[in-house]
Amino acid sequence: MFTPAVAAEQARDGSRDNYAKMAARPAPAGLTAAEADFIQSRDSFYLATVTETGWPYVQHRGGPQGFLKVLSPTRIGFADFRGNRQFISTGNLKTDDRAALFLMDYPNRRRLKILARSKIVPASQDHALSDILAISGGGRIERLFTFEIEAFDWNCPQFITPRFTAAELETSIGPKFADLEAENAALRARLAALGE
Question: Alpha-carbon distance 106 to 134, whole Å?
Answer without folding.
Answer: 26
